Amino acid sequence: MSVHQHSLTTASNLSELIGNTPLLRIPSLSELTGCDIFLKCEQLNPGGSIKDRAALQMVQDALESGALKKGMAIVEGTAGNTGIGLAVVAKSLGFDILAVMPRGQTEEKERMIALHGGTLKLVDPCPFSNENHFYHTARRLAAEDPKKYWWANQFENLSNYKAHYTRTGPEIEQQTGGRLDFLVSVAGTGGTIGGTSSYLKEKIPHLKVLLVDPEGSGLCSYFHTGEFKTAGNSITEGIGIMRLVANFAKAQVDDAFTLPDQDLVTIAQYVRNRDGIVLGSSSALNVAGALKTAVRHGPGKRVVTFNCDLGERSYSKLYNGPYLKTRGLDITLADLQPLIKKYSQ
Questions:
Q1: What digits encode the pLDDT tens for the residues 133-151?
Q2: Considering 201, 250, 292, 302, which has the largest number of Cβ atoms within 10 A of its Cβ?
Q3: pTM
Q4: Which secondary-structure segment (H or E) carries 175?
Q5: Is 65 exposed, middle or buried (0-12, 13-18, 19+ CB in 10 A)?
Q6: How is the beta sheet containing 36-41 ordered, strand by strand?
């Protein structure tokens, strides 16, 4: 499929509407920093998130290889968005999906999987080393009945990386005319940052790629020390990992830093108030990372980051004052001057 696919006036099924999302310059933050800070609007995919891209590529590649055949069902362990993306793709191509999800994700995500015709299996959250972890549960279901289930395996399946190398990266290059200084991104499976960074660095050699990590994730520590160490935890969902997976191993990262939850709560309120942009928690972390990058590197720079999913999926946590208070977070702090001072140091 070409980058120009959406110039077609009609699509024959929902999955054909995935990708080719617009790039939006964030007015308030761009003016504040003298930089162009762009958001790749992935919330406009039919399933409402960037994970639609990986879902489509994984299913297409599995159909092509014969790993997924008509009459089989898709099974996947997910914190939400990949499950929703797979449900959209599965239904549009005539497949059933079973999504294995840890309890405690936002209700909005659970509802969306069901709305798009997926079956949800909830498991208790537990460490990855526990065989009842959502990842292992999905793997086991597929192994026990390989004729019934195809396991998408988003963390290790390099079709995830391929989706962003062949589509997301080329779209960003085309939309920026190749004039880009920084790509800033969180990582969950690493497919987005892996594929996009690999493509863009081939085309824009001076580009710097920065990983922004939530507290409780070990990726920043891994980048700097080669070890997965972590402190604290975060209200974000579906990002940050404590092990090296195949998709993240492809990422061409130049630097990595961790930001606290209060930064993303403050940023989310600020761009909502100033620009009418409603960010989800991982997108708010992306935008905080982009702001820090712009402040650090000075006026005139061009920074791209991702609006990963629909902001309403984070409503019950990120925009919920009483909930945030239980985490020691303040929803009323929407003045960016203290943040800018901190980021410039």
A1: 999 999 999 999 999 999 9
A2: 292
A3: 0.95
A4: helix 169-176
A5: exposed
A6: 23-25, 36-41, 302-307, 182-185, 208-214, 255-259
